[in-house]
Amino acid sequence: MTSRRTRERMVGRLQKQGIKNTAVLTVMRDTPRHIFVDEALASRAYEDNALPIGYNQTISQPYIVAKMTELLLEKGPLSKVLEIGTGCGYQSAVLAQLVESVYTIERILPLQKKAQNYLADLALKNVYYQHNDGGLGWSEYAPFDGILVSAAAETVPDMLLQQLAVGGVMVIPTTQNNGQALQRITRSNTGYQAEILEAVSFVPFLSGVE
Question: How far apart are CA 1 and CA 128, in angstroms?
Answer without folding.
Answer: 31
